[in-house]
Description:
- This protein is an alpha+beta fold and 76 residues long.
- The chain has a domain at 1-44.
- The chain is 21% helix and 8% strand.
- It is built from one helix and two strands; from the N terminus they run βαβ.
- The longest helix has 16 residues, at 15-30.
- It is globular and about 40 Å long.
- The model has no long low-confidence stretch (mean pLDDT 88).
Amino acid sequence: METPKCLCIAYLFNPMSFLTAIMQYTARQKGWALDDMVINTNVTSMKDRSEVVADAETGAYVDGFWLEGAAWECGG
Length: 76
């Protein structure tokens, strides 16, 4: 099975199952215990999914999150 470089998590009926599968895949690949793993989210500076040119080193790139009542501050 091949995962896409970036997946829109909002399209999934059960997004937690995708995240669990990514954790299982990473645990098997690295030889880590699945019970010791946690989900860690890192926000990137990419504005569009087309900017993802390679697979993530570990885990997966996902998009499709919404932010309500606030906004990202893009600057720096």
